[in-house]
Write a structure and sequence with these properties.
By secondary structure, the chain is mainly alpha-helical. The chain is built from nine helices and two strands, in the order ααααααββααα. It has a domain of about 60 residues. About 25% of the residues are buried.
Length: about 240
């Protein structure tokens, strides 16, 4: 992480100017000491330099602490977060999001943080914005839990509805089985999220493959469902066999 991460443009300028002024004041004092001249006037430059570097330095420390808090949040099970913690984390996430507009990795961590506090819609919205920037594999891997959780959410809210069908000639409607149909909007949403998840191009965990398998069943793509179900089973067995 860079010291400039999370700083606004004017804060970066203050930090650079303060550092340059500090070096200049240090050089001036050194010269004056060698020449045995009074250097009290140069002390003012030191004070100005410290002020210029101090404010952005404090903001950088706060930002770093917020990132540590977000990393701790992302590793914490959602059900263990009480409402008071959720509100505090939401404020922290909003502060970091405001300062991380030009850093896709930090934005991805914030999106995953929103997932962790249960604000999945906001997390997915931010994840979509990050994916439009063609991010690095590390960023895409950070977004996998967000996309997986969103896919599960949409899948859970997609009750099948009876599809209209015609009864065979001379037969009764009651005696014919109707295939299940999915709401078109839900179907498009499922297809979009599933495509985004697979397009990450990173190794997916078993939970993501399981979510994809369920989604493809709903979308009527049994081949893709079978492939992902097998991947989930294989990864699960591999994880269970580790010491």
């Amino acid at each position: 992480m860079s010291i400039f991460d999370g700083l606004y443009g004017y804060e970066k300028l203050m930090l650079v100017c303060g550092f340059v002024l500090f070096l200049f004041a240090l050089a001036a004092i050194t010269v004056m000491i060698v020449q045995r001249r009074d250097f009290k006037a140069v002390i003012v430059l030191f004070v100005v330099a410290i002020v210029l570097m101090g404010f952005p330095g404090i903001q950088s420390i706060k930002f770093s602490n917020n990132l540590v808090e977000i990393d701790r949040l992302r590793a914490q099970p959602t059900e263990q977060i009480d409402p008071q913690q959720q509100q505090q984390y939401a404020q922290t996430l909003a502060q970091v999001e405001q300062r991380a507009t030009n850093n896709p990795l930090l934005q991805a961590k914030v999106a995953d943080g929103y997932r962790a506090i249960g604000d999945l819609n906001k997390g997915y919205q931010l994840a979509q914005a990050v994916l439009q920037k063609q991010p690095s594999p590390q960023v895409r891997a950070t977004l996998v839990p967000v996309l997986t959780a969103k896919l599960n959410q949409v899948q859970a809210a997609t009750p099948p509805t009876p599809a209209p069908h015609a009864a065979p000639s001379g037969g009764s409607v009651a005696g014919s089985a109707a295939p299940a149909a999915v709401n078109p909007d839900r179907q498009r949403q499922l297809a979009t999220i599933a495509a985004q998840l697979q397009a990450t191009g990173v190794a997916l965990p078993a939970a993501s493959h399981a979510a994809l398998a369920r989604a493809y069943v709903t979308l009527g793509q049994p081949r893709q469902a079978q492939i992902n179900a097998e991947q989930a089973r294989r990864i699960g067995i591999g994880a269970g066999s580790r010491p």
